[in-house]
Amino acid sequence: MQWVPWLLVALNIIGVAVMVKYGLPREVPLVGRADADPLLGYLGLLLFGLSIAIRVALTITS
Questions:
Q1: 52: buried, middle or exposed (CB in 10 Å: 19+, 13-18, 0-12)?
Q2: From CA 48, how far away is CA 16, in angstroms rounded?
Q3: Residue 52: closest CA among 23, 4, 12, 15
Q4: Residue 59: exposure state from Cβ atoms within 10 A (0-12, 13-18, ≥19)
Q5: How far apart are CA 24 and CA 46, in angstroms?
Q6: φ, ψ dihedrals at 45, nearest 5°
Q7: Which of 18, 19, 28, 38 could bond to 32 as cystine, CB 3.0-4.6 Å?
Q8: Is the C-alpha dihedral spanning 40, 44, 47, 49 positive or negative?
Q9: HEC letters along the chain
C-alpha cells in the first residue's frame, strides 16, 4: 500500500497539467476559457477532484 500516496500525487499532477494545457470550459466559474476543450478540461478536473476525494476518504477511514 505504499504506492497509493504516489498514485494520488500522480493523479493530482496529471489532472492539473491537463486542465492547464486544455483549459476548462467557460461554464466553470472564475477559471473557464472560451477556447477550451471541454472534454479534456473536464477530464483533468475529474482526475484532480478524484485524487483529493480518495485522499480524504483514506484519511477519514484510517
A1: middle
A2: 6
A3: 12
A4: exposed
A5: 11
A6: -65, -40
A7: 28
A8: negative
A9: CCCHHHHHHHHHHHHHHHHHHHCEECCCCCCEECCCCHHHHHHHHHHHHHHHHHHHHHHHHC
Angle, CA 51 vertex, CA 43 and CA 26 arms, to 5°: 35
Burial string for 25-48 (b: 16+ CB within 10 Å, else e) reads beebeeeeeeebbeeebbbbbebb
- Taking the C-alpha atoms of residue 19 and residue 37, their distance in angstroms, rounded to an integer, is 9
Total number of residues shown for the chain: 62
